[in-house]
Amino acid sequence: xxxxVPTSVRIATFLFVxxxxxxxxxxxxxxxxxSVSESQFIAFPPNGFSLRWYSAILTxxxxxxxxxxxxxxxxxxxxxxxxxxAGAAITLHRRRLPGTVLLAGLFLSPLILxxxxxxxxxxxxxxxxxxxxSFTALWIGHxxxxxxxxxxxxxAVLAESDPFLEEAxxxxxxxxxxxxxxxxxxxxxxxxxxxxxxAFNISFDxxxxxxxxxxxxxxxxxxxxxxxxxxxxxxxxAAVSTLxxxxxxxxxxxxxxxxxxxxxTGA
Amino acid sequence: MSLSTNTGxxxxxxxxxxxxxxxxxxxxxxxxxxxxxxxxxxILAFILPIGQMLLLSIEGAxxxxxxxxxxxxxxxxxxxxxxxxxxxxxxxxTVIAAVIGFPLAYVMAHVGPRLRLWLxxxxxxxxxxxxxxxxxxWMVLLGRGxxxxxTLWKLGLVNRNFTLMQTESAIVIGMVQVxxxxxxxxxxxxxxxxxxxxxxxxxxxxxxxxxxLRTVVLPLAMPGIVAGSxxxxxxxxxxxxxxxxxxxxxxxVVAGSIYxxxxxxxxxxxxxxxxxxLLVGVFLVLLPYLKLTGRRHG
Amino acid sequence: xxxxxxxxxxVLSAGFGLTVALAALTAxxxxxxxxxxxxxxxxxxxxxxxxxHRKLVIEPFSKKYDVDVQVITAYSADALAQLRxxxxxxxxxxxxxxxxxxxxxxxxxxxxxxxxxxxxxxxxLYPFAVEGLSRGEGPVHAVAAIGLLYNKEKAKxxxxxxxxxxxxxxDHVVLTDxxxxxxxxxxxxxxxxxxGDITNADPGxxxxxxxxxxxxxxxxxxxxxxxxxxxxxxxxxxxxxxxYTLRKAGLPIEFVQGAEGTPAVYLTANLVANRPNQDxxxxxxxxxxxxxxxxGWAQELRYSPTNKATKLDETVAKEVIYGPDAxxxxxxxxxxxxxxxxxxxxxxxxxxxxx
Lengths: 267, 298, 355
Fold this sequence. Notes:
The complex is a heterotrimer of chains A (267), B (298) and C (355). By secondary structure, chain B is mainly alpha-helical. Helices cover 74% and strands 0% of the residues of chain B.
């Protein structure tokens, strides 16, 4: 750096970051507070201190089963959406196929339509074609919903990539698959990582498609929470959320320890 | 929809003259293979089911074709008001998310990897809580006697019964909180790839910190901001749980209206017509926006 | 060139193979070995309701008939939307509704008619509970009375529906959206009190309009709870069973039947059309109508029985609609007329309350 960044800018930046974090986290602090409440109903400030809602969740087959279903689903959806989305984004970026613009519209369209219409349509089509819905139906449904996120974030990263790298590789005799694997894909990584993260989250938090495609054996965590909240809301849902926050932090730190997440965020 | 045309001015790489046609054909075959799974998935699992739903929008009570569902919506100031509120709030949410998200991503890109990881974790945490529970957090903070109204009352700015709940402000606050990660991560992915030497060069040549930010970083970060804005805008247009819980039933938005028509009054034809209108509305809003950013960037 | 594409295909399909293998793994884990038993799929309403539903009906029934009863948690509106979309291959055998959805379901052929003599408990039911059978609907298995909920620590006890407009409750009234069946019934009653009827809702809308400036409008039960617990609500037209739920949660809420009359939400159990297990499904519906089950509902959640033979102890009897005289005082708005006017009423309501 040539000139130091002015102190006033540094202070302003620091304040900005702190205020943003307060804004983002304040409601979560409230949720964590509610989760240790002793009383039956959701209220803040919490009445007393008790971990009864945590033990209630961790011994509840319904919550654990739903969490397991959601996790399986989100992992499968993330895998599929990332693989399919990577191929789509690379194609769209290269613009070699005729009708690329149309194709782009096709891949991003699930983002714009309200999922409720998609959910009803998919249920109708599936019932008429295959009969009762199943895990596969929900898997496909969530993959469709998650796909645009992967395409979108990967495209944005590719737009900033160096187009001559692939050409250079070609000149030096790299085959198509080598170029794809060693030149193009590494360039996509930050976008794919962000897209995969969104895909996982979308699937894990999605409630509308899951609501319509549910069966007795197929209840996801958001649906389980919704079921609990609609009739008799109690602090257990706050405890679930707090646990999910904790697990997320843990998971990210473990992945970072094992794989080094900085690689994916581009450091 | 030309959603991809803004992603830069990258053309087909120059190729040596020898064996051109084979290479071009090979390229097309490669790209067709790469995109085939996606094309099949979208057509079979999205266009087909959605198409049959959208066709309902022109189906009359006795089966014939009709435009009555559209005229019912477009001829009614109540529904037009809902559309206006939806677009207005979504644009506001997008702008605020971009104004917070861009500098935040810039800061994230410039701190050490450990701090960056923690910042990312903190920003995405709202996504990991159930929407209803998270919204409850806001209800406590914004409701009558909640932290923010209470502080404002103590400062003598509002009266005691003041509440931010069931206002458009509450919708905007709640939506920005949960959509911010989409913006920040989209921008971060791009900002991380900007060559630091460009900034250094600008500073060497005497540009101030803010000027460098404005003339070097911001234009280069544009694809990320555009990508993030598209995500944030479309997500806020099509979400209904947060708006209905924070804004309440008295501040309806289009997606909520569609949900009601689809499940509560079972008017699927009307729900389909509203979806078509929403689709067209979003497209009309995005079109000039895309052209604008495309020109600036191309 | 083709080998290269083939290579790529291998890479891609390796990814797919992995995911398919994972899916197969999960699918094999999901199927239970008890598939040999007969299976019945029903809906329930979640939370405490579903817990009690399991305890009173589902588990005893499973034991008695050695059946595997599977539950999908789905509220009436969602359940009907799901049933309609699944018309080609319905997954429910018995579907419960609480908002008059059985009228639509019967009209669209989604549910099948039941004959009175197919139900062993049929003869003991009050006439209103079996009146829908002639239209192809299922019987009413429970009743949720609608009246006034009030906070006894903060507000004076209301006596009649008209008290909602009393100045002493100003700024502390909670109204419920018409998309909620409790809200719809509450509104129809306010309309009736103000001199309207189902085809003329002007008096009701005009009267609600005067409340809107100072009232909160909610759409769901949890919002109702939050308003009483957190937001200083004093009075709201809502259901008797929910007053009990709030009381159990520690809130000082009591239920009052308005002097002008008590409308009610009628919970029905319906037989889904085009399912193989209809005989068993009818047995399940019949089981829900037994005096023992209905006494359990009243005891646990304060739903009123529809079976004349139901025996309740004194405390419970006072907190539900019990006995021929009390039942005769129930107001039932014609379900067919309500259904015919529902969409128009909901739309007009939305326009009225929109800011």
